[in-house]
Design goal:
The chain is α+β, with helices and mostly antiparallel strands and about 280 residues long. The chain has ten helices and ten strands. Strand 3 and strand 4 form a beta hairpin. The chain starts with a strand and ends with a strand.
């Protein structure tokens, strides 16, 4: 089983319940060919064996140290002990939505083992509930939806709680450009999205990020790469104003190096504070 990581192109922060329940949210993102991989099988013994960044062997799921696996086993598994192994194509805490992809992957793997298959919307909501309500993380809902649906999509988060996942109508040229002309660079810094977003957001900046998501959707569907690049500059400024620590001095320096080398635009991914930068080349 695998679930894709994602690159958010606009609207980050509008998918937090504290924002979209009042104003509605809009995020545009694309899944990428980097994944969280997971295998799970039933075990004919009395203990659960879990292999992730650490090894765990427990008799009761409530004793599992990994918070996502503990919650997934308690809420989405009613069978006996399992053996589960997972690995990611990118480090956690780097802005590619790995936590949401991990949660989606874990729930889907356990459902498949139990003989059930979940629709993308059902899977995404189950993952959001587990991370936000059960575990209590101060995060949004875009990562879980991007991992469950895949593709290049606009996600509209309505105040009432419903989510529309619209696949963008983009040309083959734009699809090739997203694949070949946008580069990911790792800053070498990890951070907790929950810590950054939990510190609060400047509402005017989040309003602007929502506008930028809509404008980016329009530019992508109009086949206008020049406009996408222009919006990346606005996105950088709005994200800087959104939350303390979103853009660090090191990230600013890396952006200036990229622009000086001919890049058309640079944005930080996820909550910022490190992780990956997306560069339009």
């Amino acid at each position: 089983m695998r679930a894709p990581l994602r690159v958010a192109l606009g609207g980050g922060g509008t998918d937090l319940p504290s924002y979209y329940r009042e104003h509605g949210g809009l995020v545009v993102s694309t899944a990428i060919d980097k994944y969280v991989h997971m295998t799970v099988s039933a075990r004919f013994q009395e203990r659960f064996l879990l292999k992730h960044l650490e090894w765990e062997e427990v008799e009761d799921p409530r004793d599992v140290g990994h918070p996502i696996l503990r919650a997934a086993l308690i809420h989405h598994w009613d069978g006996g002990p399992v053996e589960l192994a997972s690995v990611g194509d990118a480090p956690p805490g780097t802005g590619l939505g790995s936590s949401g992809a991990y949660t989606v992957c874990a729930i889907k793997a356990l459902a498949r083992l139990a003989g059930r298959d979940l629709e993308p919307g059902e899977l995404a909501e189950a993952a959001c509930h587990l991370e936000i309500e059960v575990i209590g993380r101060s995060i949004g809902k875009q990562d879980q939806y991007a991992a469950a649906y895949g593709g290049v999509r606009a996600y509209r988060f309505d105040p009432g709680g419903s989510v529309e996942a619209r696949e963008l109508g983009i040309s083959d040229r734009m699809r090739a450009a997203l694949r070949e002309e946008f580069l990911l660079f790792y800053t070498g810094q990890k951070r907790s999205a929950s810590d950054i977003l939990g510190a609060g957001q400047a509402e005017d900046a989040v309003h602007r990020l929502k506008e930028l998501a809509g404008e980016t959707c329009a530019a992508l569907e109009a086949d206008d790469l020049e406009r996408v690049a222009e919006l990346m500059h606005d996105h950088w400024d709005a994200k800087r104003r959104r939350s303390p620590g979103t853009v660090t001095e090191e990230m600013d320096a890396l952006r200036e190096r990229a622009l000086g080398a001919g890049a058309g635009g640079v944005i930080s991914l996820g909550a910022g504070g490190g992780g990956f930068l997306l560069v339009y080349s």
